[in-house]
Amino acid sequence: MLLFMIGNLMAQAPVSKKEKRKLEAQQQQMKVKELLEQKAFTFKVDQVNPQRGGRVLNVNTDGYTMEIDQQQVKAYLPYFGRAFSADYGSSEGGVKFDQPMTDEEISYDQKKNRTTYSFTIKDKNEKYDCKMTVFDNGNATLNISFLRKDPISYQGKIDNTTIDK
């Protein structure tokens, strides 16, 4: 029995580290593509880059996310920047919404191995133009432009966790 197991192990072709990394990268690429096609994923924020201030802020332990489930988008993101107007009596900060998306566009750039996912969110007080660039390894950048605030960008990673129903 022991000789059979040893012979079986020796018969398997050894896989180099380079081949293993390439295979893992292909698997990750397929996972990311599937998440984007299903429109069911969570963008987990690691860093925030406000337009003003020129400083990248690490927020990877604070649980900031944008969840996309088909046409519904739920965001809980920090905001650092200048607001040109604010709602009277509002104590809400950050970027928070749970709304359906409109003006959705998805395009894949095979040469640069990235997908651009653009959509708009409108609520009663603000319009959010969102542009997410997702790379084949799952890393992503989210840029949001507002009607009444300075734009902001977020860096992070997408995952398959979706909105609880």
UniProtKB/TrEMBL annotation:
Keyword field: Plasmid
Designated name of the protein: DUF4251 domain-containing protein
Origin species: Persicobacter psychrovividus
Lineage: Bacteria, Pseudomonadati, Bacteroidota, Cytophagia, Cytophagales
